[in-house]
Amino acid sequence: MGDAQSILERLLFHKRPLKLNYVYRGNEDDADLAELFKHAAGFGLVVNVLDDLNQNDINHLSVRDVVRRLCGEAIESWVDDDPDSLPTTRLRFANGLIVEIKDTEIGQLLPWKACVGCLERQRCREGIYAIRITHTGVLRLCMLREDIGFDLFSLAGRDLQAITQLIKEISWREWRCSSS
Questions:
Q1: Which of 27-36, 71-80, 99-108 has the lowest mean pLDDT?
Q2: Residue 48 phi/psi, 5° resolution?
Q3: I need a labelling partner for 64 at 20 to 30 A (CA). Which of 31, 58, 130, 169 fits?
Q4: Which residues, in sequence order, are CB contacts of 128 under 8 Å at separation 6+?
Q5: C-alpha–C-alpha distance, residues 10 and 107, integer Å
Q6: Alpha-carbon distances of 39 from 16, 76, 86, 139, rounded to whole Å
Q7: How many distinct structural domains can be found in the chain?
Q8: Distance, CA of 144 to CA of 146 (rounded, Å)
């Protein structure tokens, strides 16, 4: 871990905020997660514990229970509003560890009109609804549904200026739910 440790130390020295995402799959991950918590506390890293999207029986409440079981009670907690994601709760522990967990699921928010009748809403827990461009040139509005998006390469070729213009011209109001 020598090189990785020196990189972390350098980034932290320069006051770079660092967050590690950990996808919790179940009890089989407890030892690894506990070890990550131990090292993260020593470096001042934030650990974001996410549930596995492929497992329907894990949710943010059980993730909170797992964190409590592995770390004990937090000495401080606060809600962190993130403009590109769902609100999160941050938990600070006596050893300096800060853990972040999602307080709600994106399936409850319905950011896009296509979400209203979506069959994937039960699995829709990720929480990050920032728009993404895939390596294949598809502008995606949802990580679970490939049918919601725009194939930029088909529409504008591989010309970066044409793609940028196309993104500017998309009428996002047609896609957004009025409540979001």
A1: 99-108
A2: -95, 115
A3: 130
A4: 84, 85, 86, 106
A5: 38
A6: 17, 20, 26, 37
A7: 2
A8: 7
- In-domain check, residue 180: no
Q: What is the mean pLDDT of residues 155-174?
A: 78
Residues 115 and 40 reside in one and the same domain:
no
Do residue 32 and residue 56 come from a single domain? Answer: yes
Spatial contact of 47 and 20, defined as CB atoms under 8 Å apart: yes
Q: Is residue 124 part of a domain?
A: yes
Instruction: Answer left, alpha or beta for residue 18, where phi above 0 means left and psi between -120 and 50 means alpha.
Output: beta
Please check whether residue 48 lies inside any domain of the structure.
yes
Report the C-alpha gap between 105 and 121 in whole angstroms. Answer: 9
Domain ranges, residue 123:
107-174
